[in-house]
Amino acid sequence: MGENMKYTTFQGFRPHFDALARVGYFKIVLKPLSPQKRFLHNTYRFLSWTFILTYNLQHVIRVVQVRHSTNLIVDTLFILLTTLNSLGKQVAFNLRTQRIDKLINIINEFSTGPVFEATKPYHVKVLKENALVMSKLLTLYHGAIFTCGTMWTVFPIVNRALGEEVQFTGYFPFETSSTITFSLALAYMIILITFQAYGNVTMDCTIVAFYAQAKIQIQMLRHNLEQLVEFDDTAKINTQLNERTDLYSTSYKDEQKERVAIQDRLKKCVQHYYQILRFAKEVESIFGEAMVVQFFVMAWVICMTMYKIVGLSIYSAEFVSMAVYLGCMLAQLFIYCYFGTQLKVESELVNQSIYCCDWMKLSPRFRRQLLVMMQCCGRPIAPRTAYVIPMSLDTYIAVLRSSYTLFTFLNR
Q: Where are the transmembrane segments (predicted)?
């Protein structure tokens, strides 16, 4: 029990919120701060917003400037749409801070007490495994981002050294042909795009981690349901042979000394399920609009990235960087659909776990309570975008098909 008490559910989210605070996309969470440090971090967040909005405005101006050239528009839009998609999530994180704080409190057991708490060795095991997976996913994304940023730094320098013209995707109010201005413009563009990409993938991993946490909580709930009637000192059903009548008299578990304990366990399971349901719906509500933008923009971004990549030499540094970028875009959408599907599948198994508990040891009165709970848990928890489009692998395939259709149209 000591190990359980030491492990908190929020530990699986600590790397994500630390990374968000590092780029100023969210406040510093669950760490004591002096007023001076808090002020400095808020100032840093303001400057982060200023640079990000300036960067996006430069690309909007660039799109207007090159509106008569399809190739140049594609060069700019595949970056602009990605950053606008990132802005949507950033707005959700900052305008709905209080609601996200409530999610953090639920995860950290501040507002719900022990509902999400690990109380058994199995709970600790699955929580730690999930935290490790989420941490590795975040690290993998960050590695891909820095690889892509490095490649985007290299290929303009290589192209310029080969005497080719280098055009930036953003607008600059000065010429970038000289070495000094070119170097400054390149450093500015690379730093900001890497900065935004870092924040963007961190937000993605954080939202996905919320859904993954809901899935793990359902696993914990299923374990509790399957162990509903089990006790350390449990005895089998007391079956005694009545010597006079040769009849068996059966004593049910919930009619013995365990009655209060079993009823309390069922009550906690019901509370746990409804807390998970509210948690998943709140995550869906907070990021609903951002997810609508994400799914629709991703189709265009993947399409335009493919349009740009088919015209490049496979031996060029730009091709490698674009391939990494395309992989990030595909994975960015995939993780939402994958973990959304995982949550739905796991929630569909709750009734199976109820049936797997040793319900034959329970009285008919208690069995009716289990039937009522099975009716309430019959509908799976399925995350949706705009409350309509399911976050599922089928949706992922549909988006890829739409991207290919758009690419075919654009290529003609």
A: 138-158, 178-198, 286-307, 319-339
The CA radius of gyration of the chain, in Å to the nearest whole number, is 27
Helix/strand/coil (H/E/C) assignment for every residue in the chain: CHHHHHCCHHHHCHHHHHHHHHCCCCCCCCCCCCHHHHHHHHHHHHHHHHHHHHHHHHHHHHHHHCCCCHHHHHHHHHHHHHHHHHHHHHHHHHHCHHHHHHHHHHHCCCCCCCCCCCCCHHHHHHHHHHHHHHHHHHHHHHHHHHHHHHHHHHHHHHHHHCCCCCCCCCCCCCCCCCHHHHHHHHHHHHHHHHHHHHHHHHHHHHHHHHHHHHHHHHHHHHHHHHCCCCCCCCCCCEEEECCCCCCEEEECHHHCCCHHHHHHHHHHHHHHHHHHHHHHHHHHHHCHHHHHHHHHHHHHHHHHHHHHHCCCCCCCHHHHHHHHHHHHHHHHHHHHHHHHHHHHHHHHCHHHHHHHCCHHHCCHHHHHHHHHHHHHCCCCCCCEECCCEECCHHHHHHHHHHHHHHHHHHHC
Domain span including residue 400: 2-411
d(CA 341, CA 358): 29
What's the pTM value of the predicted model, to 2 decimals? 0.88
Q: Extract the residue ranges of the chain whose pLDDT is less than 50.
A: 1-4, 233-249
pLDDT over 70 percentage in the chain: 89
Q: How many CA atoms lie within 13 A of 314 on its CB side?
A: 0
Residue 139 has what pLDDT?
Answer: 94
Alpha-helical runs (H) found in 121-234: 121-161, 179-226
For the chain, give the mean pLDDT: 85
Q: How many domains does the chain have?
A: 1
Q: Which amino acid is at 18?
A: D
CA 255 and chain centroid, separation: 45
